[in-house]
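Recap quiz, item 2
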Amino acid sequence: MKTLTTLCLALLCMAGLPAQTISGFGPGEAQKQLELESRFDAQLSADNLDAWMERMAARPHWVGTEAGAEVARWMRDQFESWGYEARIDTYQVLFPYPKIRLLELTEPTQYTASLTAVPVEGDPYTEQGDALLPSYNAFSRDGDVEAELVFVNYGVPGDYEELEKLGIDVKGKIVIAKYYGSWRGIKPKLAAEKGAIGCIIYSDPKDDGFYQGDVYPKGAFKNATGVQRGSVMDMPLYPGDVLTPGYGATADASRLEREEAPTITKIPVLPISYADAEPLLQALQGPVAPDAWRGALPITYHIGPGPAKVRLKLEFEWKLQPAHNVIATLKGSKYPDQWVIRGNHHDAWVHGAADPVSGMVALMEEARAVGMLARKGQRPKRTLVYCGWDAEEPGLIGSTEWVEDHLEELKQKTVVYINTDGNGRGFLGAGGSHSLQSMVAEVAASVADPQTGVSVKERQAAQNLVSGGDGSFELYALGSGSDYTPFIQHAGIASLNLGYGGENAGGEYHTIYDTYTHYKRFKDPDMSYGVALAKTAGRITLRLANADVLPLDFGPWHQTLSKYLKEVMETAVSMREDALKHNELIDKKAYSLAADPRKSQAAPTKKTPAPFLDFSPLQNALASLQKEVDAFAEKDLNGLPEAKKTALNVLLMHAEQQLTSEDGLPRRGWYRHQIYAPGFYTGYGVKTLPGVREAIEQENWEEAQQQIGKLAGTLTRMKTYLQKMNAITP
Amino acid sequence: MKTLTTLCLALLCMAGLPAQTISGFGPGEAQKQLELESRFDAQLSADNLDAWMERMAARPHWVGTEAGAEVARWMRDQFESWGYEARIDTYQVLFPYPKIRLLELTEPTQYTASLTAVPVEGDPYTEQGDALLPSYNAFSRDGDVEAELVFVNYGVPGDYEELEKLGIDVKGKIVIAKYYGSWRGIKPKLAAEKGAIGCIIYSDPKDDGFYQGDVYPKGAFKNATGVQRGSVMDMPLYPGDVLTPGYGATADASRLEREEAPTITKIPVLPISYADAEPLLQALQGPVAPDAWRGALPITYHIGPGPAKVRLKLEFEWKLQPAHNVIATLKGSKYPDQWVIRGNHHDAWVHGAADPVSGMVALMEEARAVGMLARKGQRPKRTLVYCGWDAEEPGLIGSTEWVEDHLEELKQKTVVYINTDGNGRGFLGAGGSHSLQSMVAEVAASVADPQTGVSVKERQAAQNLVSGGDGSFELYALGSGSDYTPFIQHAGIASLNLGYGGENAGGEYHTIYDTYTHYKRFKDPDMSYGVALAKTAGRITLRLANADVLPLDFGPWHQTLSKYLKEVMETAVSMREDALKHNELIDKKAYSLAADPRKSQAAPTKKTPAPFLDFSPLQNALASLQKEVDAFAEKDLNGLPEAKKTALNVLLMHAEQQLTSEDGLPRRGWYRHQIYAPGFYTGYGVKTLPGVREAIEQENWEEAQQQIGKLAGTLTRMKTYLQKMNAITP
């Protein structure tokens, strides 16, 4: 029966392909690869994912816990049992544990925040009481402050502009900001820049609670007591261990003093539930918040400042903790020094069934299947490295330290890094280096969606069409928020981030409710999307591992870059037009005449209109790149002799590194990629062409022009690099 | 001192004018008119408005109450004391008074709605207990129904399309709809068309409660117990007395049987507070409502149907009640048979300090000042008719019956009808016939805004600029919602509607909280905008009364019509494109593939794409109208001899009537105007070029083409009419 099943699966799989070709493979090799992929599929078992999730998410296992170390050891043993060389690479990283958490409303009434999420009926994991990590924001500094409260919406730059218009200053105040609207770490960073002395972050039920759907345990959403934990380390400066910027946090590494560490927040920060936020917000007076700021609590949202006054006292135990990265290697049969790296983190804020275990078990099942095939003689040509990262939650620490520690070797040997993290039911989401877009699209067309039976590419296209798009397949650009960051943004390694979702919304993220019970009810009950993820990431991994010529396609990459340049140019123009329009309205006294005299508002001040920037260096660089991109697309790669293929592959695997600069982005040299970076004031949210774009957004025109020149230089070097590749001819 | 004050005021007023010219007046006459206007201004006293509001809003005074009759008699006496011939024209109109109001949640839990707004501290008017009219929707039919509940958002056509997509049918159910999103009467009308057997309307705190601002008595907004009363008569069919469609409800008029009256609702309807709505909505299950449907109650909004089941029992006392219209006339010195009519209603749902008394007292102060000037020898050339309408609230009844009763005389003699209603603080809002746009803009430029000192036109322009507009002055098109409707839409009399607002938001509308106390705290505390309204409406009235040549300008009218035609043509195109796109997505299975298989959804069905309509008759009619409009604009009107001016005026005052048709709009012949009508499915909201636009929106393509022909005929007749005016030459 086995052969028949395999054949059927193979036929099923091939049915999804437009033709029996795969980028990077000659015709005969493609056929072999497709057969390999169907045998790979046949190995995958949803039951394994289910059993492993139940085991790995049984106990809270944040970095430094015995539960976490035990998970790492067990994973290592699993990989070994599947034929991998597996080890644990441990780093010693600073990690704060909350000792004192006090939040009180002291005026005009008294209220002490409970800071405790309640256990719920039907989910025994939520009853583990003291074993649960108290809710907090890691890398908040210690502090004891008391001041009037100000509601600052999401606490992002636009919100402070709005406050300025209203004449409200947060200097010396404690701000309360909603989660969402930016990565959480932006909120205390910006609040401190504006002079606030403390920061409270809460989950508003509009974004993350009953407004979205029934709350846990009736439904999947956040109940009144749930609190989102999370790091507030200044990751846009650099992620990873706060004491060892740019190098591995080995046991004997030299370390900054904690007081010097620039990525610890400047003010104390605490996350709270909406049950704890309501009395605080209710006690505010002052202007009614703008419509877009109001949440779903049954109150009138006022901004303050005061009369509400709060005291926030936080004290942490600051200790070095061991971060255990599990590293499992399967040496390549033909190119052992060319590595395809797959990673997912294993540490969780609490149980972490969804985040990260759902992605981790898919990775493990993928690795197990690959190991089985290798044992049966189908060892991949390139080396595979499967990684289980520790300490991702507090700030991508495990992966960052490992990448920093092995930087030169990784830059030399890595073909691609493929990341996964939490996974759920729905649509394929794929982000990454745009030279990989075509090959990911090919893979997406060959994986069947578990619910509808069409390919996951077709299902994603349907969603895109219904949302008004043109149904085309595109990778999103990578900002930050998971372990791809050190690979792509620091090491310049082409990277991907993969996951399914969109039909598994809930409020469990980083709370005590992210449990196996919750996952099985609301996320991916039969683990079929976990299997789909293993198929998707597994195919990508295996194709990159076995390709005759690495399947990089610079056409979509060039198109995407051109689109980014257009956006940036339009931003500069519209900022100029907006400033001119704004100044004209001031000249016409329109703001003052339109304002309600009974509401206090600050007089608007004139803006300096953006000068006309010279974008021609970038336009010319992209235009001359176009020729080389077209020439490469026309090459008959299959016709190259073996040795030239090998030479070309060495160039291809280092192409992404041409897009980095040694000195990195202004004021944050750790970020070396010139095309993708997390935003300095968005956190996770990506800024493409970041040097140019952020200088424009921050109205630093001189720097914008410099960065245009720098980026044009990078693209010109890329052109030369492509010329080198084009020079390889039969 | 008096002369000096007058002179200063005159200078102040003139300073706002670009030049000492006024449309419709020769140079010398313009000067006299400006002097008259400054004397008029000098007469106006905010104290009068204040004292009269306190008196008129002292007691609830809905139609048929002794308090209402007393207010009418007192107003009549006031007008008489100012030199007017004043009378009360009484009609006998059907008016329902609520005897039984019962709303119970019967499953899965029990709750009986309180249906009672609470008195509040600091506002003695809210404590009048039994004197207050119980909250209800006038012209709901009697009924006693029990069924499962369905939440239908605002209960407008788009909401039922959404329900259809979700596979939810309201047949045999009771619907609960939020106020807003349409005029309230649309909700039961549409619900009945869809097969529902009962309708509950509630004020969601998102639109009308704590979400908007602090609630009464702390702030101006609706507290949890406030209920908006209001008529649900099918006014888009015909307004006014339900038993006497198209003719006056005189004591001896023939009347329909109540059972035959087509404008009484087909199902029982009751308005409730958000305190009463919360238990009902909370008891619903079924799909979570789409994001745009969710309000500000602290619940997850589900659609149902059920398990919530409600019983709704309503019984009314149906009686003929006397509606007392106060009619005060000041005979014109030169053209007694040319009438400028000013009107505002005097009946209120409860005390009605804002609605309608704030507008009524401005009208009265205007009339008093005009009366004073007339006594001093400055009697207007044309006849002024000041009207205080009764029974506006239940369905524009007083004004409609009066217009129907005097239809031929009014069509013959009326120059313009100028309406006001509730007034507040902020910006001038002016709607009406676009041939009056230029003259209203001239007046707006000559009235000073009380808070900023610039002209009300300049302040409105500032607001428009800040909101992204170009700062130009435009009249909005009249739909329905106040007493201009019978004048413009039935009689074809050029009309205006004027009021200030935008800085007086609150939740008192049609509740027990619309009191003098509330008005003085939150609306127009010093009555300065009441005075501004008297100045604005007074100038318009006096200019129309004294103009040598009536200041109608067909240029803006033609431009506005061209804009409407463009909109309608674009609607047809985009409906076609949307249908084609929709059908393409069905062909591609995009909807079914994008849908979450765990959520029940109805399979979308294909749409018939709009055919290409022949708009050329309208385009040609507008093009040939353009020539006549231009020719009229170039005429030297001042150069006409007196007799020809008189002849021209007679044509001008009947110009608007050329835009009506005797047989009216399809299926609602009462509405005769071919350019403006309230929407059949929006209620108050205007539909311009209604015959064509609504046929297109309702996908009745044959009728759309017919209506294009009909409207083109109307415009061609208007061209001939303008030719007649252009033929009058010196």
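Residues 275 and 474 of chain B are 40 Å apart (CA to CA).
The domain at 98-317 of chain B is CATH 3.50.30.30 (Glucose Oxidase; domain 1).
End of item.
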